[in-house]
Amino acid sequence: MSDEISMEVQQQPVAVENANSNSSIDKEMTSEKQVEAEMIKQRMEEMEREAAKLRELHAQLSEDKGGDTEEERRDIDSRSIYIGNVDYGATPLELQQHFSESGVVNRVTILTNKHTGQPKGFAYLEFADVDGVNKAVATQDGSSFHGRELKVSAKRTNIPGVNSRGGRGGFRGRGAFRARARGGRGRGRGPRGGGRFAPY
To answer: What CATH number does domain 76-154 carry, 2.40.50.200, 3.30.70.330, 3.40.220.10, 2.60.120.260?
Structure first.
């Protein structure tokens, strides 16, 4: 029996050592978790600062973007022309050179398909003054550019919600389905509803 007691006594210090090592491991793990938590807090604070900067920049951009008022747009439209039948290979610089004899050109916009990026075949050109518009419409309408006859007219100002017919038009999109009227009853299979099963 004395041997057994001494074994138990020897095992107790080992258990105490294991408990001490477990507590030191727990302390290391908790300190690692605390360090990790601090790092996460720092990242969150940094993200919040970046988000605040982005909100501030967005607010500044939205203030700056609202620049064109209705009057400014009408003024720009009054100094602009529509150019139709434009060659697909034409560049804004070539159009600017072609219309430079009518007046000082501020901006040339060749409209493109937003999905493919291909030109649509028409453009808008803004002059420095209204005289350029009048001169371009008078002299350049029907002129030849890249082997094509240009259609030049003064740009009209679009008014939202109003179209050329007056009022708001109905749906006139593609693919509207209109059923044809068929004689007879039933589903219209065969002459006068024949060919269907009628048990009684």
So the answer is: 3.30.70.330
